[in-house]
């Protein structure tokens, strides 16, 4: 019978052991030279391991609030044109991004933190695309051969016979051919690269890119391998929405630091099997800074919010009680703005929101996650004005009819003890990664996936390639299902709230609920994956391949 995460913590003593384990701290010193990311002059950076006293992470309460300006990632520029892989006569914009080690100050009063970044920054530069206009990205692995964080070699795909540092890039939410999707086993090592084609045949949306290497995704993203990928189109252009300097990405994630300001990753306390089932941290980082501030004019701003945390969910509010107007979700604009006092984001979800500062000239407003400060808005007394009110209608949306579905799948989310390995793994439909593929939708067909959550946790489930709509969530009797595989509902179906009623690529599946989504498998035939976006779960078997089968 499956056990839940809390029972696992109690059995293993992990909650206590993890706090007693300190990872190495690192201090920069003038030792061997490392190449500067992007090619250029050499810089002298090396790291010397130092033990920390037991249980001594940095206390974020000691840090001053709102002393660093909010960094806004630069927009990546094309390095020229290259032939399209589908049609060599067609030349596409070409971008080159190195993944490399870098140092960055997360706060004015901290030493620079050793991280891994795309193009030498965390987050990486923003890639901007136009719908229908393809581009090429060469992803270059220029990372060290030793991992920054503890690797668990017991996890499938991360065994000791594989290189410790491996990467592959995935653009989350992109409709791409399978060879450019970032299949977790198709990683490459230091000194190698791969060029991916992004056709961008999709609506305007806030996407993001991140590492997806098998068995170490949680470590590579925690180290800093993430960035924004924004698709724009004519429908969005025609709307009176904040744009230019008033359209700002906010990548929000939690981290834990040691007393030297270095990344602190919690482990089980067993160096042979350091994996932990979930990891929550005590500091919240926004665009690479702790407690930054942003000076804004007394007008509307558009903020593209992304939850890039390994496992933490965010419930964001404004200190003055002001409303957000949510205009978009994962895969594009909503039909109309949705007023919200709280923006809820599970890992990998996005919320495209507008905040109107026009009535708050001279005030200071704090974006908060519960009782924790995330960042501060400083509203100037003077500034530009908006041309008119926020559009009442955004992008029309036709709800997919259940009658369109040619197949309905019942898929479980569960946990299983691996007593031989003294661990717990989380599984999709009770099936391991390397077992035969069981989900084979036909290209351009519609299916309903009913996701039965048998665990005590909410899991954000992401399907590569496709977007979907949420049909409903409905409570069911877990005990009856575990005993006899009988699906017995215990309450009515609950339709998605307005902010979840648009196009999604990641869905929250609540404990004891059946979450139904309806999906059209359009775009390309080939092999993709679906998985939980709690990264510690994804890395330990809560990911499965699926095949989109040609309809010929």
Quick summary:
This protein has 3 domains: 24-48 and 55-233, Immunoglobulin-like; 244-379, Sandwich (Immunoglobulin-like); 402-548, Sandwich (Immunoglobulin-like).
Explain what the structure shows:
The strands form 7 sheets. The chain has a 7-stranded mixed sheet, with no helix packed on it. The protein is built from 6 helices and 33 strands. It starts with a helix and ends with a strand. The longest helix has 8 residues, at 5-12. The chain folds into 3 domains: 24-48 and 55-233, Cupredoxins -  blue copper proteins (Immunoglobulin-like); 244-379, Sandwich (Immunoglobulin-like); 402-548, Immunoglobulin-like, CATH 2.60.40.420. 45% of the residues are buried. It has helices spanning 5-12, 14-19, 217-223, 234-237, 478-484, 535-539, and strands spanning 25-35, 42-50, 68-69, 81-83, 91-104, 113-118, 127-130, 135-141, 169-172, 193-198, 205-211, 226-232, 247-255, 283-286, 289-290, 292-296, 300-307, 314-318, 324-329, 332-340, 343-345, 350-356, 364-369, 372-379, 407-418, 423-428, 446-453, 459-463, 468-475, 506-509, 513-520, 526-532, 543-548. It is mainly beta. 7% of the residues lie in helices and 39% in strands. Strand 5 (91-104) and strand 6 (113-118) form a beta hairpin.
């Amino acid at each position: 019978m499956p056990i839940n995460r809390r029972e696992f913590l109690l059995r293993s003593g992990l909650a206590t052991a993890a706090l007693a384990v300190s990872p190495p701290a690192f201090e920069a010193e003038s030792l061997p030279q490392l190449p500067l990311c992007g090619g250029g002059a050499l810089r002298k950076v090396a790291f010397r391991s130092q033990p920390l006293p037991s249980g001594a992470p940095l206390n974020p309460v000691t840090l001053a609030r709102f002393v660093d300006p909010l960094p806004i990632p630069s927009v990546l520029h094309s390095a020229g044109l290259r032939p399209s892989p589908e049609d060599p006569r067609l030349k596409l914009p070409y971008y080159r991004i190195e993944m490399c080690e870098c140092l960055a100050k997360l706060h004015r009063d901290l030493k620079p933190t050793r991280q891994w970044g795309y193009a030498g920054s965390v987050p990486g530069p923003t890639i901007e695309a136009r719908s229908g206009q393809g581009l090429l990205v060469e992803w270059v692995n220029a990372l060290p051969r030793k991992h920054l964080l503890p690797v668990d070699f017991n996890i499938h795909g991360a065994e000791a016979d594989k290189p410790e540092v491996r990467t592959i890039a995935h653009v989350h939410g992109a409709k791409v051919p399978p060879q450019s999707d970032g299949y977790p086993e198709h990683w490459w090592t230091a000194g190698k690269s791969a060029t991916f084609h992004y056709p961008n045949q999709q609506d305007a949306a806030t996407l993001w890119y991140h590492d997806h290497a098998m068995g170490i995704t949680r470590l590579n993203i925690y180290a800093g391998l993430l960035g924004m990928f924004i698709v724009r189109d004519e429908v969005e252009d025609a709307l009176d929405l904040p744009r230019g300097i008033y359209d700002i990405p906010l990548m929000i994630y939690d981290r834990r630091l040691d007393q030297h300001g270095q990344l602190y990753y919690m482990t089980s306390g067993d160096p042979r099997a350091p994996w932990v089932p979930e990891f929550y941290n005590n500091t919240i980082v926004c665009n690479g800074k702790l407690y930054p501030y942003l000076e804004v004019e007394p007008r509307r701003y558009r903020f593209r919010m992304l939850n890039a945390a390994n496992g933490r969910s965010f419930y964001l509010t404004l200190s003055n009680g002001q409303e957000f107007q949510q205009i978009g979700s994962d895969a594009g604009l909503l039909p109309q703005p949705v007023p919200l006092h709280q923006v809820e984001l599970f890992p990998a979800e996005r919320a495209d929101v507008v905040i109107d500062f026009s009535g708050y000239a001279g005030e200071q407003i704090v974006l908060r996650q519960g009782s924790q400060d995330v960042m501060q808005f400083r509203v100037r007394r003077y500034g530009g004005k908006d041309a008119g009110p926020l559009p009442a209608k955004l992008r029309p949306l036709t709800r997919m009819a259940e009658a369109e579905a040619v197949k309905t799948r019942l898929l479980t989310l569960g946990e299983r003890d691996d007593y031989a390995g003294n661990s717990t793994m989380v599984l999709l439909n009770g099936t391991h990664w390397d077992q035969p593929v069981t989900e084979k939708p036909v290209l351009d067909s519609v299916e309903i996936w009913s996701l039965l959550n048998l665990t005590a946790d909410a899991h954000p489930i992401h399907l590569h390639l496709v977007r979907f709509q949420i049909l409903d969530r409905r409570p069911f009797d877990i005990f009856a299902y575990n005993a006899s595989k009988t699906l017995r509902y215990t309450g009515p179906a609950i339709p998605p709230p307005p902010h979840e009623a648009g196009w999604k690529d990641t869905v929250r599946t609540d404990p004891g609920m059946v979450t139904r989504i309806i999906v059209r498998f359009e775009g390309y035939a080939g092999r993709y994956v679906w998985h939980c976006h709690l990264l510690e779960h994804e890395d330990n078997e809560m990911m499965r391949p699926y095949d989109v089968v040609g309809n010929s």
